[in-house]
Amino acid sequence: MTLLSLRETVRQYGLLASKALGQNFLLDQNITDKIIRLSLKQQNKASFSGCHVAEIGPGPGGLTRSILAAKPSSLTVVEADVRCIAIMEELKAQTEDVVLNIINGDALDFDFSKEILPPRQLISNLPYNISVSLLIGWLHQIAAFEAMTLMFQREVAMRINAPVCCKDYGRLSVIAQLTCNIDKLMELPPECFTPAPKIHSTVLLFRPKAELPSKDVLTNIEKITTFSFGQRRKMLRQSLKSCPRVLEQCENMNIPLTARAEELSPQDYLMLAQAL
Ligand code: SAM
Predict the structure, then answer these.
(1) Which of 9, 14, 79, 110 has the fewest CB atoms nearer than 10 Å to its CB?
(2) Which helix (H) or strand (E) is 236 found in, with range?
(3) Which sequence spans correspond to the domains of the chain?
(4) Architecture category of domain 215-274 in CATH
(5) Residues 6+ apart with CB under 8 A from 209
(6) Each residue's pLDDT tens digit, 62-93
(7) Is the CB of 57 under 6 A from ligand 1?
(8) Which DSSP state fits 46?
(9) Strand 52-56, strand 74-79: pairing
């Protein structure tokens, strides 16, 4: 028995894309192979041998097939749509040398440290409607991962990677850049997907920084950036009015209270949070 093409799989299983589940499928194996190839190359790896990979939202399984071809020690797929679980079961029946674990559940509730052995790689063409919530949750436990290869809508990827003073720079940039080294792997136009979305997409590779902020410091950074970027056009004196200790610390660090949130670097936010 050989695998059906991805398009034939989608047709046979009647997998009409659900907007609510953020389903835009990658049905071109050349593209999914390229995502995996670029991720491995950036990590100086020839394969995923020795790694335990988790894929969020395998859908009809294009990216899943490319991950399996890179020979991880195990692959765990977490998928909310029960229709895709049947497709995964068929793929499992034809997979010989990789352990394929199939979980029908919500990725927002999935505990990677508990369910998957290290070293862990996380890979996903993310459901865009929950991509930021998922990413923030994973950044809080980034030490659990060796790397994360994730596809976002281009605007979100720009926010993640934005430099100081840029209009896209915000909370997400600060938290992502303080916890990870981030590489852009590729951009994909809408026509690569079925159905084609209205937006472009970007694949990013996240690898944890050697030195990570502690849990408490990260929580403080979230609090400070919520206030400062919550009123991003206002001066710190105003936006951080309800956090007098942070304002005091700004003065100690020679950060003018007339500055705006976007003028402080991730490192500035780290030092403010460490001082609390
Ligand atoms: N990986 C497939 C591909 O590249 O063709 C599908 C990607 S599609 C953009 C997102 C996938 O995530 C869908 O299969 C969808 O059903 C699944 N999904 C959506 N919300 C989810 C959730 N909360 N937990 C797990 N999977 C979810």
Answers:
(1) 14
(2) helix 236-239
(3) 6-208, 215-274
(4) Orthogonal Bundle (1.10)
(5) 178, 179, 180, 181
(6) 999 999 999 999 999 999 999 999 999 999 99
(7) yes
(8) S
(9) parallel
